[in-house]
Design goal:
The structure is a single chain. The protein is of the alpha+beta class and 781 residues long. Helix content is 28%, strand content 16%. It is built from 19 helices and 21 strands. The protein has a seven-stranded antiparallel sheet, with no helix packed on it. The protein is globular. The chain starts with 20 loop residues before the first strand and ends with a strand.
Length: 781
């Protein structure tokens, strides 16, 4: 029998070695050997065991031998996920290295019972390599950063016979998980091939550019960037799974390969001149255009602070033909159908048979359970995000509704929180907005691009901006998805977080609600919301607090506001590299064109049956769309909230979501995220007034939770407009967070206040502290 270390596979041929490996788990879309590595993507929200990976077809002798595995990425560290390497006679008897809930574990299965020998916090860099080794009757569980110098996790006398072993690598979930994430394995029993020449050149260029600015940033390892290969997955329908708006298209709206090729040439050459040679669609017969592509060179810019633009990455987006993409599209159709339903009516409609909300909940639970949100879907979590705090309290963040208290001001002009005015120095920001008219006001004309000729013209770059139908009767608080979509149509993303910053900086101590009942503090002087414990100047009267100084340009308002706009730009450039340089994912609007052509029989595409079945004669979604257009011809195009549809850049990652993730992280790093939001408010059904929120969870709203919710709102309101996917939100908030953490890490090296630190809870629920350039998790105890 061969020794275990003789079984070698570097996965570089992008094809499973079927003579030696057998696959287990789901279909090939979720288990792929591509990008010269093994990529595993367990489906979300599976109630039963949901594992995917490889096991050796032959038995191997592990005695006086070893198995090593390069682990590029593990699944998201949320309860219910496992990423593992194992060896043993069978599934019930094997030694294993497993990562779950933020810990790397050494252990073994014996007659179906698992024993954990030791655990320690999982560190992706330090634990990139895993090894199971047997020598002279002792089993060793080991890890390494480079595959050469090994650290022992644990060793003990062999707990079971290792003379005849199946070798197993895999990842999966053992309970429903909303977002399991993505696991990547490479170099099984073989040395690492190292970074590609292109990535290595980029890393060295960044090192040279940033050497004087920051050695910390220059020393960061640059990841490989990989997409889902949709550009080559469908040779008979080239590029139908990729973004192509403003490029040339055929009569079905499919991209013209030559036009698309000129885009690829420019992105690959990085030559500014090639970007001016991209072939766009010819000018439309009516209207202006074609619209120019939005900033495809942004991702080539270098950064002088925080991570380099290409030093952070995202997992490949779900494939065009995947069940997850189809399920995400199902949610987008329901968001479009529910645009004009007030959030305050969700609970009532959910209990009434055959209302839009009741049908949406039923459909997401039965037709589209893999859409990427929390299941089972309820009125409380419908269309909401998945990160801490997003499903607590009202749908809309308090930072998009609530105003500051100032008893000095006249009634109706900012005296109390229900009036919805944020204090901006001597000015005020009104949380109401000039919104747009909905279907109840103007009928189906409130939505756009539902007629194929218009849709095709816009794909070819026709400029339909400026056709918005504003509601001029009065300004309103955000009350429904259409209002939210309108908010993120004209914003610059960072303004919502500037508003949150000014609200938190300006609120006096008191009850956060009624100016007619003065609190204990002076507006803009005595802060209700303190900075977090690492701030050397605040909160007052704490250990280490400065007695004779206050913060201003460090650890004060100027520092905070400067960092917000700085991180917004850096996060934006990082995601622009992902959009143009890596993924080039099509917009939902484009996928809707494929769906429409397919369902109406004009042209066929490799669509998942999840979406086509739901649009059939017996499908809930199909019935609702057909009812919407009765008696007019039925359109299966995704109704857009914006007259021009999506902007002229690819979907994944999302700019709004990435910048929101970065800005929310900055605010959590400055303020005490555990402080309560007292007396929360909610908009009435028509958006004309705020009312006190009296739900059972009214006392559970916190600064950190509402900042997460704000990031989710700004992201998912773009989905409500029809221009983004749910996974654009899910994977982009953490991308922005990575940029913010890197910026804070470098910033923490610069302070004269030597004991100062930043501390906050990441989107994955893990609390970290950043001090003197070091990022460490904080123990719960």
């Amino acid at each position: 029998m061969d020794k275990a270390h003789t079984f070698i596979d570097n996965f570089n041929d992008n094809d499973r070695d079927s003579a030696r490996w057998a696959g287990f788990g789901q279909n090939l879309i979720e288990r792929q050997e591509i990008n010269q590595r093994l990529e595993l993507r367990p489906l979300p929200n599976r109630s039963s065991a949901n594992y995917v990976g490889y096991y050796s077809k032959n038995l191997y002798d592990l005695t006086d031998s070893s198995v090593t595995l390069e682990v590029v990425q593990v699944l998201n560290q949320v309860p219910g996920t496992d990423t593992f390497l194992g060896a043993g006679p069978d599934d019930s008897n094997r030694v294993m290295i497993v990562v779950n809930t933020g810990l790397i574990r050494a252990g073994y299965w014996l007659t179906g019972a698992f024993t954990t020998l030791t655990t320690c916090p999982y560190e992706p860099v330090a634990h990139r390599w895993w090894r199971l080794r047997e020598s002279r009757g002792t089993t060793w569980w080991e890890v390494s950063a480079d595959g050469e110098r090994w650290t022992v996790l644990f060793s003990r006398a062999n707990p079971l016979s290792l003379a005849s072993c199946v070798l197993t690598i895999g990842a999966g979930t053992y309970q429903p998980v909303v977002n399991p994430g993505f696991a990547i394995f490479d170099s099984f029993n073989s040395p690492s091939a190292g970074l590609s020449r292109r990535v290595e050149e980029r890393r060295l260029s960044a090192l040279g550019t940033r050497d004087k600015a920051s050695r910390l940033a220059a020393s960061r390892s640059h990841p490989e960037h990989a997409n889902n290969n949709d550009e080559t997955n469908y040779p008979d329908r080239p590029f139908v799974g990729n973004y192509s708006k403003s490029l040339k298209h055929n009569e079905f709206g499919d991209p013209d390969p030559y036009s698309y090729g000129t885009l690829l040439r420019a992105l690959q050459s990085e030559d500014p001149g090639d970007f001016e040679e991209i072939i766009l669609a010819p000018p439309p017969a009516t209207g202006q255009g074609p619209l120019k592509l939005t900033n495809p060179q942004a991702g080539f810019a270098f950064e002088l602070a925080g991570p380099d633009t290409q030093a952070v990455t995202m997992p490949p987006a779900p494939r065009f033909d995947s069940e997850q993409t189809a399920a995400e599209m199902g949610e987008l159709y329901w968001m479009a159908l529910a645009r004009d339903v007030s959030f305050s009516n969700y609970a009532t409609q959910a209990t009434q048979t055959d209302t839009t909300i009741e049908r949406a909940i039923r459909s997401l639970n039965t037709e589209f359970p893999q859409f990427g949100g929390t299941v089972p879907v309820t009125a409380q979590n419908l269309f909401r995000g998945i990160y801490p705090g997003e499903q607590v309290g009202p749908y809309v963040s308090q930072f998009l509704w609530k105003g500051n208290v100032d008893p000095r001001k006249p009634d109706t002009q900012g005296r109390d929180a229900l009036e919805g005015y944020i204090t901006y120095g001597t000015q005020i920001i009104d949380q109401r907005q000039l919104t747009v008219r909905g279907v109840p006001d103007v009928g189906l004309n409130a939505d756009y691009l539902t007629h194929f000729p218009d849709w095709l013209e816009v794909q070819n770059g026709r400029d339909d901006r400026g056709r918005d139908q504003f509601d001029t009767t009065r300004r309103r608080f955000i009350r429904n998805l259409r209002d939210g979509a309108n908010y993120v149509h004209f914003d610059q993303v960072v303004n919502a977080f500037y508003n949150a910053a000014f609200y938190l900086l300006s609120e006096p101590r008191g009850d956060q609600n009624l100016g007619t009942t003065p609190g204990t503090g002076r507006p803009q002087a005595d802060m209700e919301f303190s900075f977090n414990a690492g701030n050397p100047y605040d909160p007052p009267d704490t250990e280490g607090d400065a007695r004779k100084q206050v913060g201003f340009t460090t650890f004060g308002p100027v520092h905070l506001l400067q960092a917000l706009i700085e991180v917004a730009g850096r996060a934006g450039r990082a995601v622009w590299w992902q959009k143009w340089g890596v993924h080039r994912r099509l917009r939902p609007e484009e996928y809707g064109g494929r769906v429409h052509n397919h369902v109406t029989g004009r042209r066929s595409y490799p669509l998942s049956s999840v979406i086509t079945t739901a649009l059939s004669s017996t499908g809930l979604l199909g019935a609702s769309l057909r009812a919407r257009y009765t008696p007019a011809p039925v359109s299966y195009l995704l109704p857009q909230a914006y007259s021009e549809g999506a902007p002229t850049h690819p979907a994944y990652g999302a700019g709004h979501a990435t910048i929101s993730g970065a800005c929310a992280t900055l605010l959590k790093a400055f303020f005490n995220e555990n402080a309560r939001i007292e007396n929360p408010v909610v908009s009435n059904a028509d958006g004309t007034a705020l009312e006190l929120y009296t739900g059972a969870d009214a006392t559970r709203l916190t600064v950190g939770g509402e900042l997460n919710k704000l990031a989710g709102n700004i992201s998912l309101f773009r989905n409500a407009a029809g221009v983004h996917w749910r996974s654009d939100y899910t994977d982009s908030l953490p991308l922005g967070e990575k940029v913010a953490i890197g910026l804070l890490q470098e910033m923490s090296l610069t302070f004269n206040e030597e004991d100062a630190f930043f501390q906050f809870t990441r989107f994955d629920g893990i609390t970290i502290r950043i001090h003197k350039g070091v990022v460490k998790p904080v123990s719960a105890g």
